[in-house]
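Structure request: Periplasmic binding protein domain-containing protein, Candidatus Enterococcus mansonii.
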Amino acid sequence: MKKLVLSMVAAGLLLSGCGAATLGENDTQTDKKTEEKKAADLKVGVSISTLNNPFFVSVKDGIQTLADENKTKTIISDAQNDASKQSNDIDDLIQQKVDVILVNPVDSSAIQPAVEAANEANIPVIALDRSSDGGEILTLVASDNVKGGEMAANFIKEKVGKDAKVAQLEGTPGASATRERGKGFESIAKKDLKVVQSQSADFDRAKGLTVMENILQSSSDIKAVFAQNDEMALGAVEALKSAGKKDVLVVGFDGNEDGLKAVKAGTLAATVAQQPVEMGKLALQAAYDHFEGKKVESKIDSPLELVEAK
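Returned structure:
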C-alpha cells in the first residue's frame, strides 16, 4: 500500500448540505497529504449533539457497530445540546490527536470555529444530519431534510384538505436540519395550508408538550401539527390528549423507535422516517474510504420514507 495519497481540493468549492460550509481556500489546504491507514489503526472522535434523543443514540450505535466490526477505536462525547460544550469536546478530541472527527452539530453556526480548529490540525471532519456553516467538511451524511419537510406538508394537505389551519413545532434554532425541514414544509404549507403558529421546541419532547399547550391556548381550531422531529411530535400528542383534542393530526420526523411505535398505535398520524443506524455507518464508512485513498462525495444521502398509520 502506498504510504501517502495526495488529496487535491479545489479552492472555493462549495459543499452540499445546508450550502454554507466551504472547502479551504489557502495553499496549505490544497497541499494536504492524507496518510493511508487501515480501519483497525484509526482513532475516531465522535461528537453527538445529545444522547437524550433516541435518534442520535441510534446514530451513535451505527457508528459503534461498524467500528467494532473493524476494530476501530472510538472516543464518543455527548454535547448535551450545549454548543459551548460541543466546542470544548471537539478541542479535547483534537488534543487527543484523533485521525478524524464525526460531528452532529448542536448549532450549525456555533460549530464553525471548532471545525476550523480541526482543519488547522489537519483532521478531516465529517458532519452527520446537520452541517456546519463554515470550515472544511469532508462530507455531510444526511437525509434530504427539505424533501422530508415537503413530504410532511403534502401528507397533511392530503389528509386535512387545502387551507386547513396547521401549526409547526420547530427544532433547535440555528441547526441546519431546523432550517431545511422548515423550508421544505413551508414551501408547500404557505401555498396550500394556513400556518397559524410556528414555534421552537428545541427537538425536545417535554418542550414539545409545553409549546403545544401554549399554541392551543390561542389556536385551538388547528387541524394538524408538523413537528420537525418525533420527540416534539410525541410531546404534542400528549398535550393534545390532555386538551381532549382527538381529531388533530400530528406528523413527526426521524422514525425513531418511539415514533414508529406511536404510528403503529395510531396516536401519531405519520413520521418522515430516517435510518439513523445506517446514517452512522455511512459516516464511518466515509472515513474508512478517505483513509484508503478513495474519493468521498461531498454529500452522502441517507434514505427517507414516509411511514403512516394504517
